[in-house]
Amino acid sequence: MQPVPYVRRIRWLPDGASEFLSSGANRIALSTAFRGTLATVVPLALLPHLGPAGLAYPAVLGALATSLVDVGGPYRSRLEAMLAQALGGSALLLLGAAAEGRWWLAAAVMAAIGVLSGLIRAIGPSGPSLGTNMAVAFLVGLQLAMLPGSHPGLWAAGYAVGGLWTVGIALAFWQLRPYRRLEQEVAAAWEAVAALLAVPAAARNASAVGRLRREQQLGTLHAAAVAALEHSREVLGEIRAGMAGPGTTVAQLLVLIDAAAAMTGTAISICELRAESGTSAHLANACRAVARVLLAGKGELHLAGLRDHLPGHPADGLPPEELAALNHALRSLDIAEEALRALFGIRHRLPDLLRLPFAHRLPRGSVLRALRAHVTPRSALFRHATRVAVVTALDAAVLVQLRLPHGIWLPLTSLTILQPEYGSTVSRALHRTLGTIGGAVIAGALLATVHGTYAYDACLALLLFATFLLIRRNYGYGITFLTPIIILLISRGSLDPWVDLAERVGYTLAGAVLALAAAYLLWPRWERDLLRDRLVRALRALRDYLDGVLRQLAESPVNPGNLDPLRRQAEIAVANAEAGLQRMRAEPAERAALQGVAFALLVHLNRLCRHTIMLSLQHPGTPLPSQPVSELCRLTAAVLDDLSKVIGQGRMPVPWPSLQVQLEELVSQLNPGAPTESSPVSELLGRIASDLLGLLGAAGYRRDIDAFSASTPTSTPLRIRR
Fold first, then answer.
1. What angle do CA 240, 245, 248 make, to 5 degrees?
2. Residue 693 and residue 687: Cα distance in Å, rounded?
3. Can you spell out the DSSP letters for 606-630?
4. Do 346 and 217 reside in the same domain of the chain?
């Protein structure tokens, strides 16, 4: 069966292009790119005719840096960050020019910027970008002072003009639709749920490798859906922080986030339970329809057509557990439909707009308290900031003392590559180096061919648009287009552009090597030392969530509303452990054995999380008997606690005699169905028991578990050094 289109597509575009542009992430990137391009291209086009001829390029540089600082958050925080970049960057450019010939001053200022750029991560998402672009302004001033015929004062004025113009453009776009960003983030969450529903059903005769690949795909998409939901909640919190009074729009968007979270759990059930059916395809299409209505700002879902294509009762051949999951999905879509109708039935949003004052402030002293909390050698941010300061100060001193003609790329590369984690530094070094080489080649070709013509400015405009479109989605591609912009803006021509290209590439490689050496030698934070704690937190979060779900099925005094936070904590903890494993793979040696054990543990942790979510969606006709439930809660908590201690303390596992027999006996006592047939609850409890045994086997308990040798591969005990 083909999915039913619940909303109309963009008629004048091909299906593929329409689907691409309907994506929430693409909409966000395109709107950011258009706004950033408008802020930077207008000065490039108009200033040569309205002011001094040399004002255009510094204005473009200021507009570019100020646009990159606007990374979201409350309106007041974004405004403060952009103004700080526009005016502070201009002052640092002048200071860089004054430091020419004084290597000690250049090193001191660069060290101060390095410390601040590291610590400023503690105060918000705009911190890293603000620190990096401030450093770029200072380094541009250093480089300009070495070029003959340069005018640092004119460049500082142009930089400020471009930055303030960008602030004005941002304010105008903010007022056009104040909740646009939140709507886009919620749409991205619904699209992530649709991607989860689109996971193909497992073939009955699939190989073990095929089933493992599907498990990995399902786990990856589940983590992506959780991340999208959390991101939308963060944006909602940021907008609420800037509001005065209740907001109808925000309330309905919160309902849509909660409905997407419920739909995520249902999608897990459908992916696990359904074999070969078009039901998940129809539900995925309906989720995409919710996203498209949010992005378009109008429209309705019309779910009647969806129900016509779905089975609705057991007579249609649908097993009870699949029917329950389908009813949950339709209920979530009904809630989304009501929220969309209420959201876009409001034609006048002026009252909501007036609730977004720029007067919102953080609590007095909160910024200083956040920075002071990290001024200690125990803080990973402080160690990172110190590492950045040492490397960039050394680079700046070498640049000024030796008067390197293109030496700006040495400290700039080290600054942008260094990250708090070694694995992230390696990844950033690869992307930065390859992107810089590609961008330098583009710049060299433009300098050798169209320099001094109108095509030169046209190419700058195209590069600016590509940079804004890609820089936050793919760092390597973004740097490829950002590098030639910096080169073209501060270039003064050359007898041989390709010699300049070789020098820039050489400095970039040197800066990358220095950054990698510093990340390895100067107070590193190894992910292999943190992974143990992440796994322990995931186990404990799943223990609490599973305990709550089991007690709810027995109608114990557990508030059902408390399960949602427990589920979120479990999903986030498992996702954090997976992210830590990915980062650890980029670290040097001493990780092979740990990587294999951690991977096996995460496979079973993901399964346990999904099966617990599925169990939470079950509503048996009669409550489960309390005594077996209490015993199962006690046993599962004891198993997970003991496993947490094995992982956390790095000790040898203690035998669990007859564990499988105990679990099977308790599961059989909790079967609410007929004695001769298995109920959905009983099947899920059996899967959870298997997941627990799998976790123990992955950690090295295999030889001590009865009748378990046929289902779990051999594993070595988990040894994680402190």
1. 75
2. 10
3. HHHHHHHHHHHT---SSPPPHHHHH
4. yes
Sequence-distant (6+) residues with CB within 8 A of 344 are 293, 297, 298, 299
Per the domain annotation, does 127 fall within a domain? yes
* CB 652 within 8 Å of CB 719: no
Residue 674 neighbours by CB distance under 10 Å: 8
Q: Is 246's pLDDT higher than 70?
A: no
Q: Long-range contacts of range 425-433, CB-CB < 8 Å, 24 or more positions apart? A: 425/515, 425/516, 425/519, 426/516, 426/519, 426/586, 427/586, 428/475, 429/512, 429/515, 429/516, 430/476, 431/475, 431/476, 431/479, 432/475, 432/476, 432/479, 432/508, 432/512, 433/508, 433/509, 433/512
C-beta separation of 358 from 76 below 8 A = yes
For residue 100 the two structure tokens come to: 């020419």
Q: Which domain holds residue 150?
A: 15-175+367-521
Reading the block at residue 374, the tokens are 């990290």
12 backbone φψ class: left, alpha, beta (φ>0; ψ -120 to 50): alpha
Contact present, 256 and 290 (Cβ < 8 Å): yes
CA–CA distance, 61 with 139 (Å, rounded to integer): 13
Same domain, 535 and 676: yes
Residue 42 or residue 321, greater confidence: 42
**Helix, strand, coil percentages for the chain (3-state, nearest 5):** 75, 0, 25
DSSP collapsed to 3 states, 122-144: HHCCCHHHHHHHHHHHHHHHHHH
Q: Which two tokens stand for residue 234?
A: 């963060």
Same domain, 514 and 538: no
Assign 401 to helix, strand or coil: helix
Q: Is the dihedral of CA 676, 681, 685, 691 positive or negative?
A: positive
Q: Is residue 224 part of a domain?
A: yes
Over residues 66-76, mean pLDDT: 77
Do 425 and 514 touch, CB atoms closer than 8 A? Answer: no
**What is the pLDDT averaged over residues 648-671?**
74
Find the farthest-apart pair of alpha carbons in the chain and give their distance in angstroms, rounded.
Answer: 92
- If you search the block for the tokens 């389908």, which residue do you land on? 326
Query: Each residue of 503-557: pLDDT tens digit?
Result: 888 888 999 999 999 988 888 888 877 888 899 999 999 999 988 888 888 766 5
Mapped onto helix, strand or coil, the DSSP state of residue 451 is: coil
**Token match 């603000």: residue?**
130
In a domain, 710, yes or no: no
Instruction: Identify whether 668 is part of a domain.
Output: yes
Comparing 7 with 339, the larger pLDDT belongs to 339
The model's pTM is 0.72
Specify the higher pLDDT residue, 465 or 271. 465
CB-based contact 375:119 (threshold 8 Å): yes
